[in-house]
Amino acid sequence: NAGVTQTPKFQVLKTGQSMTLQCAQDMNHEYMSWYRQDPGMGLRLIHYSVGAGITDQGEVPNGYNVSRSTTEDFPLRLLSAAPSQTSVYFCASSYSGQGTREQYFGPGTRLTVT
Amino acid sequence: TQLLEQSPQFLSIQEGENLTVYCNSSSVFSSLQWYRQEPGEGPVLLVTVVTGGEVKKLKRLTFQFGDARKDSSLHITAAQPGDTGLYLCAGRGSNYKLTFGKGTLLTVNP
Asked: Chain B window 45-104: which residues touch A at a Cβ cutoff of 8 Å?
């Protein structure tokens, strides 16, 4: 199993550009989520999904869109990039339902917006 | 909003020393997880504690969940340079979401 994969690893955007961060998992996990990690701020939840066709907002959703058309994929779209979106982005997945639902993280995408 | 406070924020010690990292909240969590993150990588789960008062050991790492399920600690015995990394605690409340602490950055010097 590849686990959780993310592409690209690094990306530089100009203010106002749009792009999609890709995330895929091969563990048949129902729950997937996107976090951003900034120095001194820890991991903050952007959006999450409890299954195909179902998404919801997390703590910091503004400026980001998500969709979940399949169990495996959960892309994150930046509509109009801003310097405040410079961050490291992590995708994670886990089983849903009862239980402790440990999360498996991808390797991250380091995004710089100039 | 459920908050998790981790302390200390930074810790630099010599190889062979012992250390304890704390994760505290005023909220009750149904479970609490500890992750370790190395530079340039995503967090990796170390352990999950579920029951108040629970103690789990992972080689030289000992994890404890508070009796009231509001706090947790991570104790490392005889730290090694390979233990260097960012240690994150994360609490799960009554919904699907995890609340993460801001982390403790541990450096173990040879």
From this structure: 45, 48, 50, 88, 90, 92, 96-98, 100-103
Residues in chain A: 114
Radius of gyration of chain A (CA): 13
Per-residue pLDDT tens digits for A10-66: 999 999 999 999 999 999 999 999 999 998 888 999 999 999 999 999 999 999 999
State which H helix or E strand residue A21 sits in.
Answer: strand A19-25
The neighbour count for residue A99, using CB atoms within 10 Å, is 12
Q: CA-CA distance, A108 to B44, in Å (whole number)?
A: 12
Work out the number of other CB atoms within 10 angstroms of the CB of residue A62: 10
Rounded Cα gap, residues A28 and A95, in angstroms: 8
Provide the number of CB pairs (under 8 Å) joining chain A to chain B: 52
Query: Which 60-89 residues of chain A touch chain B by CB within 8 A?
Result: none
